[in-house]
Amino acid sequence: MTSAYKIEVENLNAWYGSNHVLVDINMKIKDRAVTAIMGPSGCGKTTFIRCLNRMHELVPRARVTGKVVFDGVDIYDDNVDPTWVRRRIGMVFQKPNPFPILSVYDNVAFGPRIHGIRDRKLLDKIVRQSLEMAGLWEEVKNDLRRPASALSGGQQQRLCIARALALEPEVILMDEPTSHLDPISAAKVEMLIRKLAERYTIVIVTHNMQQAARVSDYVAFFYMGKLVEYGPTKEVFERPRNELTERYITGKIS
Amino acid sequence: MKELHERIRRLEDKVARVLVYVALIVALIPLFSVLFEVFKRGVGVINLDFFTKPTPAVGEVGGGVANAIQGTLITIGLASLIAVPIGIVTGIFLSEYSDSKLSSIVRSFNELLNGIPSIVIGLFAYMLIATRVGFSVTAASFALALIMIPIVSRATEEALKLVPATIREAAIALGMPKWKTTIFVALRIARRAVATGVLLAVARIAGESAPVLVTMGYWKWWFAGFDRPVANLALNIFLFAKSPFENWIALAWGSALILVAMILGINVVVRLLMRERSP
Q1: pLDDT digits (tens, 9 = 90+) for A228-240
Q2: List of E strands, A31-170
């Protein structure tokens, strides 16, 4: 089944204990495009993307209702295995989190290995392709055995992207992937995001409006757990329909 | 006037300093005199025979404690074989399911078990095992395992809690089930700290004598099966020292020396492991 939308979110609600952090979210996410999730701190951006690959439920006392339909399958359906969901919907975190004790190679090969790929040649190929795609290959190709912790912050984040790519996911969720990086590394990651959008559906959380404007095709504005505005990036930035969005874009609320 | 105040203040400072040093020396005297005495009296009997020959017969000259070393290692080994898996699994449970009711109950029991006098644990193992199998390695190892479990599980729990949540999330986000993430990622990162806990537990039981006495008793011969007793270094000290034979008394000091050396050695390894742990 082919649809212009990769993920369709229907009436999504999420809680931490009694704290209702996402309220009735309805949103359709386009395939092979970058969708940016914007909004002030605490508006539910991170919780929202963590609901898209069933990471939210790992937090004690967290709860979700509603549907997240991914390629026609509701990922919250009882007979859906969350590990299947996470394999097809990859995630890159705010702070680079490579496995510190593993080498660059083993970090990238981690995903394929846990899903049963043992063939040495195939792993070599996957590692190389993933690192190339993440724009890290040239920098690490001479020493794939070096521990991941020896890389710089920006390299570590691209390694994390390569690690996610190694599973050939269809969607990549990114939670403020550049907020811990210096401007040059951040620019590299942004270019990479644009390139990845040719093949993947990308949902990126950012509280940096310039970044949203630079990298995204669509932008969603969240405020106090609600989806306030959603549309093509250019439209939202140039002609916001909602007053809250306008005030956020013009820096009156942050 | 001001000068007097100044003088009193300085005097007080001096007195306080002297008192602290005196207290320090008083505290160290027992430690060093024990180590010194054990070394002085023990070092004389340490030779090749000491490590290769078993307990001498009454009146026999020389002899060694090879059987007791063998017995101690076997007893500790079996105890570790029982306690390490149970302790690690308990520690995993305590750390990964720390908000469940059951885990707070388990944690309290663990602390309770840690506080029970070892002789009581020995008595329990005696009733449960020794009354059926007889005085044996099995009964002694069981008692020692009960002492080890809370130490190992506590260390495992603490070590796992130090592994950053972001690293676990990285593995889970790649589609690794939670239980696998705990074992293959978190436990692997925490392995040094867990090993440290195991070694500390081993050091603790290596010197235990009361529970061994109640469950296995004293034995002069080599290992002859898990349903039989075997010699033990800690008990050697107890029984040799009470004997009227000079030869045996010397062996008691020798046993004490290698026991102390063994425990010190374990502590040194623990320190090295802790230091090497990545920041």
Answers
A1: 999 999 999 988 8
A2: 34-38, 62-70, 73-74, 89-92
- Chain-chain contact of B172 with A101 (C-beta, under 8 angstroms): no
What are the residues facing A27 on neighbouring strands? A9
Question: Measured between alpha carbons, how far is residue A247 from residues A216, A236, B110 in Å?
Answer: 20, 12, 56
Domain ranges of chain A: 5-249
Q: Which class is domain B51-276? A: mainly alpha
Tens-digit pLDDT profile for residues A159-189: 999 999 999 999 999 999 998 888 988 998 9
Q: Where are the domains of chain B?
A: 2-45, 51-276
Phi, psi of B13, deg, nearest 5: -60, -45
A3 pLDDT tier (thresholds 50, 70, 90): low
**Phi, then psi, of B192 in degrees rounded to 5:** -65, -45
- pTM (2 decimals)? 0.79
Q: Is the pLDDT of residue B238 over 90?
A: no
The CATH class, in words, for A5-249 is alpha beta
Give the best residue of A52, A57, A58 to mutate against chain B (max B CB count within 10 A). Answer: A58
Nearest to A101 among B171, B174, B189 (CB): B189
Using DSSP's 3-state secondary structure scheme, residue A170 falls into coil
Angle between helices B137-161 and B101-115 (to 10 degrees): 130
Q: How many residues can be counted in chain B?
A: 279
The complex scores an ipTM of 0.89
Nearest CA to CA, how far is A251 from chain B (Å)?
31
Distance of CA A213 to the CA centre of its chain: 17
Over the stretch B100-115, which tens digit does the pLDDT of each residue have? 888 889 888 988 988 8
Q: By the CB < 8 Å criterion, does B27 face chain A?
A: no
